[in-house]
Design a protein that fits this description.
Blueprint (H helix, E strand, L loop, with lengths): L2 E3 L9 H30 L22 H8 L4 H15 L10 E2 L4 E2 L18 H9 L3 H6 L9 H4 L23 H9 L13 E6 L10 H23 L10 E6 L6 H12 L3 E4 L1 H4 L6 H16 L2 E4 L3 H4 L8 H19 L3 E6 L7 H4 L4 E4 L5 H11 L12 H7 L4 H17 L7 H14 L6
Parallel strand pairs: 5-8, 5-9, 6-7, 7-8
Antiparallel strand pairs: 1-4, 2-3, 4-6
Helix pairs in contact: 1-3, 11-13, 15-16, 15-17, 17-18
Length: about 475
Amino acid sequence: MEISIANSTEKKLNSFDLEQNAIVLNQELTWLNTVIHTRIALHFGHETPYETIDELYPPDITSYSSPYANFVRKNHLTVQERLVLVLALVPHIKPEVLDILCSKNQDYDRRFSEFGGLFVQGHNGLIPTAETAMFILAGDDLIKRLHYQYIFDVDHVLITSQVIKNTREKKDVPRLSQMLIVSNEYVDYLTTGKSYQAAYSADFPAQRMTTKLEWKDLIVSQATATSLQEIRDWMTYGNVVMRDLDLEKQLKPGYKSLFYGPPGTGKTMTAALLGKSANKPVYRVDLSMVVSKYIGETEKNLAKVFDQAEHHDWILFFDEADALFGQRTQVNSANDRYGNQEIGYLLQRIEDFSGVVILATNLKDNIDEAFTRRFQSIIEFKVPRVEERHRLWKQSFSAKLPLDAKIDVLAIAEKYEISGGLIMNVVRKCTLQAVANEESVISQHNLEISIKKELQKEGIILN
């Protein structure tokens, strides 16, 4: 199957667009620099032509269509939110802007605590914290400080979209001590226009899936194709059903589907193709990394995935879902109880998710009935029948190194009842052999030897 875990392959901005984005960012940095110096002057009673930083209007970027300007407009950022965004971007593009906040309080021989900020290994400059932002926005005005707290809430768009990392993980430290920095993935987008690509990691257990195949390449039974069309229709007309027809109160959001069937029957490929056909990224959630031995970590990791998926309109794909959605355990210990809580949390996030969620399993019976009732569709992927195998054999080889014209492809399809995944393995094996032998076609002998080797690998013994 031509499925891969992808990094973004989209082009960066051309030279003209990069110049436009540089102009916007320079204007923002100049504005931020002026605001910081003005705040310090006001704070210490130094001479300044301004009575408040509110007099320092942000640059007019409405005529620009650069990534940064587009992001500001799309998310309707206020002046204050915009200041926080460019402040969080500074360590990546112009860290010297914050050097003035490194100065010491001579009375106590240490930095001014109201400036906030952290120093981390590997970076010579100051990393701003939420306290740094709050000082710049409000100074020592308590009313304003209370008002701007919302910007640092976990449900603010800058946090839920993970433009700014949510680093508030340590307990018993002040809320505003969290580091304030744009995530590496969004640095690429905001500076060079490279499309946002979430990075797979221990605390973000999901990877993007892509395929070079097209929808026409998918060979499944008619019943399966009809069920898949319903998912495609939902992705096209779901908003009409929910919003235009005012059914948001009656119907639960999103679309949930269970794919089941033997390995190699196209479940993963279909998920990738659904995303490609609808121009939506598909992310496969690694359930082995989701379940953490640390209390609370599972929910936190899942929250990151679902928050990103909601914001970017991803399709989520849970492979081998029975590992987490199987029969729930009897509660005999604290671990059992917490394990069921994890499942309950994940189930709730899936139910509340407004996009498409696909769960895949080899055996439908392994999925708890309490979960299957919540799916909009349950779709079986069978081992392809003779006519489907015939099509797969005929379309899967390279036109530059085809099957020998003497081969009775229909007879091969009738003789070997194997899945599409195994057929692809055979294609790889016998094509490689033909190239190594400098042959111009795939011979019948090569084909059948490759089939038998693949079946032996699967533990299937032929007479």
